[in-house]
Structure formats: structure tokens, C-alpha cells
């Protein structure tokens, strides 16, 4: 990933990074004031802070305790990585010190706020933390500078154990929360500093982060002079030139519309090579180096919004390891390589119509059909009942649309993004094929 490295650019990135860190510091202070629990990564210092206050010890404030625990997370990172621990990771010490200082400054800045006297007041303080955490994470990661030690520990666990980032984050979050709870139970005989608010923050930040990210991440990264991996991949791609002897067809279809069957008939008719989903996934795994399980299960993951939101949050904080960007960058490379090397090919899905949107040799096709027809076809083809067919249609179309929109920002299936979009509802099989072939021939003649 290339980014500008001028003095002005570095100053902008440092400014954005510090703003994001300070907003996160404010959220830590508000969570502590709520008495309903802190976020998982700050739950241990929050509990210890409550213990010290209960004993009249104010020598160590919340900011200092957070710095100390963050340094422990850095040691955990070192233990998991061993020889793979890189010297630049020691910069996380600076992040720990700065973040601790910001928490102390935020405590002084917010000292005027009254302590909540009832549960409703505590809940208001806690709810205010959710958008602050989401905003802070988006801002500081846009600068693409130093990871927090907690994030580094999660990445280290992921690498050493071979787990996907969301699984590693869940393991890390649960572990530190359990430790915080045990400390609280030992000293207070109850839960103080780690309560229901900890779970609320862990679950709710992801969904809140998505709309904020959609509006702020791009202008922030433009200000910082940084790029996501997918933007870098698209920017580095060379423009295709018209080749009358070349034909690349991208095809998307609604589940049950028969688009894949039509594509295979079309390939036989044109002598085209088909790049199916399975083959594209294999090529993307080889290109990206990502775990096979992550690539193959990505669409399934998106069907479960709560899990996907948590996963998105987990990947967002890993600014030096963003598999979603890596996956899309691999898709760009694979699809463009096919378009450059094949004379006649059909590409199934994988955002092909978007990636090749400016390729004069690419014909973009979308197939759809009326829902009753799709249900009937799905029942017969997949040997499922009507209810199962309806569930399959809904789940598959939803995941395809979400996958496409998350990567491209465009609405999957909209006719304006395709050269031909038609319904197979009223067409017998040979007539559908004839219609597509005729459209392609006219399109080729008009280029």
C-alpha cells in the first residue's frame, strides 16, 4: 500500500491518529463513570482502578493503569510471536503511554460531569460511549500508524493459532473480561467495573461503526494520504484496450433464476472458458495468502449480521492486517488477469462487472426471474420443499447483494450496471440462450 510520506502528510496522520485516540480516551472515562463496565480491552484497568479507589489509593489513576495493562498486552504479543516479533512493534509502547495520558487528560476535562445517581443516568453515560468508540477507531485507523497493544495481541494470537481475526478477538475479549471478573469477585465479592455494560459495548460498536465508516473513512484517508488495499489495487490496474478478438463475460444471477445453467450453455455455444465460484476462490486464496476458510465462508458470515458486524469491527482495528481489503485486492488481480490473458471467458460473480466496468472487451450480464418461478425451479433442482427454497433464495440473494455492496458500494442487480439484464421467467431454455447470444453479437458490432 503506497501513501505519501511528506512532512505535511506525516503531520496530518499524527493529528488524525491523536484525535482518534483522544476520542477513545473520552469513551474510557465515560464508561468508568457509568459504573456499568468498560469495554473488554479496558475492563482490567477499570476493575483495578475501582479497587484502589475503594481503598483510598489514588496514586495510580485510570490512565496510568491502562498504560500498564497495555504493556502487559505487548508482552503477550511478544510471547505469541516469538522470533516473528518485529522491532517496529515496540512503537506500541508509545501508543500505550500516549493513550494513558489522554485518559488522564479526559478525566480532568470531564470532571465537571455529575456522577449518575440512578441506573438511567449510568445507561446514558454508557450509551454515549458506543458512537465514541466507533468514531475513535475509524479516525485513528485511517491514519494507518501504530496499532494498540490489544490489537497487536489479537493479531499475534490469530497468527500463532491459525485463527481468523474475529475468533482471535472473541477469545481475547472473553479472556480479559473473565480475568477482570475474577479480580472483581475476589476483592468485592461481586462484579464492580465489569458488568453488563462490557457486553453491551462489545456487541453494539460494530453495527454503529458501519454507517459512520461509510461517511467518514474515505475523506479521512484522503486527508491523511492513505489508501485501503482495495483502492490501491484498483488504482494500480492498467486500463484495458479494445481487442475485437476478445470477449469476457461477467454474469450475476438471482438464486433459482438459472443463471449458472445459462452461463454453461453460453460457454458451450461460444467456446468460452468458465471461471466458476470454486475456481475463482482457489485463485484468490493463492493470490492473497488468506486462510481458505476465511475466503470460502465470507459470504456465509455476512448472512448473520451480528456476527458479521463483530467481525468487521475486529478487522477494522487490525490496520496492518485487513483481510477484507486483501480479499478484494486479490479479486481485482484475479479478475483482471483473466480478462488480460483469456480470449473468451465467463466469470461467475466476484464483483466482476464492477472490476471490469471500464474494460471495452467485457459484456456484463445479470439474470433474474419472478419469485414463484425461482421457488419452483429451486424445489426441483435442489430437491427441497417450498419453505426451504424460499429460505435459500432469501439467504443467498442477501449475502450476494451484501458482498457486492460492501466491496463496490453499488447495489447488486441494478440494470444500469450491466449491458444486459433480463428475466428468464417467460423464456424457455433455448430462447434465453438465443437472446443472450444475439445481444452479445449486436454489442460486439457496436463497439
Characterization of the model:
The chain is mainly α. It has two domains: 7-227, no CATH class; 234-446, Rossmann fold (3-Layer(aba) Sandwich). It is built from 18 helices and five strands. It has a five-stranded parallel sheet with strand order 2-3-1-4-5, with helices on both faces. Helix 3 runs antiparallel to helix 4. The chain starts with 6 loop residues before the first helix and ends with a helix.
Sum this structure up briefly:
This protein is mainly alpha-helical and 447 residues long.
Output the keywords.
five-stranded parallel β-sheet; 447 residues; 6% strand; Rossmann fold; single chain; mainly alpha
Distance between the termini: 35 Å
Number of strands: 5
Helix content: 55-70%
Number of domains: 2
Low-confidence stretches: none
Widest β-sheet, arrangement of strands: 2-3-1-4-5
Overall pLDDT: 86
Judging from the principal axes of the Cα atoms, what is the shape?
elongated
Amino acid at each position: 500500500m503506497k501513501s505519501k510520506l511528506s512532512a505535511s502528510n506525516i503531520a496530518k496522520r499524527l493529528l488524525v491518529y491523536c484525535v482518534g485516540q483522544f476520542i477513545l480516551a473520552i469513551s474510557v472515562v465515560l464508561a468508568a463513570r457509568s459504573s456499568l463496565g468498560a469495554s473488554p480491552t479496558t475492563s482490567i484497568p477499570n476493575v483495578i482502578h475501582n479497587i484502589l479507589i475503594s481503598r483510598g489509593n489514588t496514586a495510580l489513576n485510570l490512565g496510568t493503569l491502562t498504560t500498564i495493562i497495555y504493556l502487559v498486552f505487548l508482552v503477550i504479543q511478544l510471547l505469541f510471536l516469538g522470533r516473528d516479533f518485529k522491532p517496529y512493534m515496540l512503537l506500541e509502547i508509545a501508543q500505550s503511554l500516549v493513550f494513558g495520558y489522554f485518559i488522564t487528560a479526559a478525566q480532568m476535562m470531564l470532571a465537571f460531569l455529575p456522577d449518575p445517581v440512578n441506573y438511567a443516568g449510568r445507561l446514558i453515560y454508557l450509551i454515549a460511549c458506543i458512537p465514541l468508540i466507533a468514531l475513535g477507531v475509524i479516525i485513528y485507523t485511517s491514519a494507518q500508524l501504530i496499532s494498540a497493544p490489544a490489537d497487536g495481541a489479537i493479531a499475534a494470537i490469530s497468527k500463532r493459532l491459525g485463527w481468523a481475526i474475529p475468533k482471535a478477538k472473541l477469545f481475547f475479549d472473553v479472556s480479559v473480561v473473565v480475568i477482570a471478573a475474577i479480580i472483581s469477585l475476589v476483592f468485592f465479592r461481586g462484579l464492580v467495573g465489569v458488568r453488563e455494560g462490557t457486553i453491551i459495548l462489545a456487541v453494539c460498536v460494530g453495527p454503529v461503526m458501519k454507517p459512520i465508516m461509510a461517511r467518514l473513512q474515505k475523506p479521512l484517508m484522503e486527508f491523511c494520504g492513505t489508501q485501503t488495499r482495495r483502492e490501491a489495487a484498483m488504482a494500480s490496474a492498467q486500463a484495458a484496450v479494445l481487442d475485437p478478438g476478445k470477449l469476457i463475460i461477467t454474469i450475476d444471477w438471482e438464486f433459482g433464476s438459472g443463471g449458472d445453467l445459462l452461463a454453461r450453455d453460453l460457454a458451450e455455444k461460444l467456446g468460452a472458458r468458465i471461471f466458476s465460484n470454486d475456481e475463482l476462490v482457489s485463485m484468490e486464496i493463492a493470490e492473497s495468502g488468506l486462510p481458505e476458510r476465511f475466503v470460502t465462508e465470507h459470504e456465509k458470515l455476512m448472512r448473520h449480521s451480528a456476527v458479521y458486524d463483530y467481525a468487521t469491527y475486529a478487522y477494522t482495528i487490525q490496520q496492518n492486517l485487513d483481510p477484507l481489503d486483501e480479499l478484494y485486492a486479490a479479486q481485482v488481480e484475479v479478475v483482471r488477469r483473466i480478462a488480460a490473458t483469456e480470449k473468451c471467458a465467463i466469470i461467475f460473480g466476484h464483483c466482476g462487472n464492477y472490476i471490469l466496468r471500464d474494460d471495452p472487451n467485457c459484456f456484463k450480464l445479470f439474470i433474474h426471474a419472478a419469485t414463484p418461478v425461482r421457488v419452483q425451479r429451486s424445489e426441483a433442482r435442489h430437491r427441497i420443499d417450498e419453505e426451504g427454497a424460499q429460505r435459500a433464495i432469501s439467504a443467498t440473494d442477501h449475502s450476494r447483494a451484501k458482498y457486492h455492496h460492501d466491496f463496490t458500494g453499488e447495489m447488486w442487480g441494478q440494470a444500469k450496471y450491466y449491458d444486459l439484464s433480463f428475466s428468464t421467467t417467460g423464456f424457455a431454455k433455448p430462447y434465453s440462450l438465443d437472446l443472450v447470444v444475439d445481444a452479445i453479437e449486436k454489442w460486439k458490432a457496436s463497439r
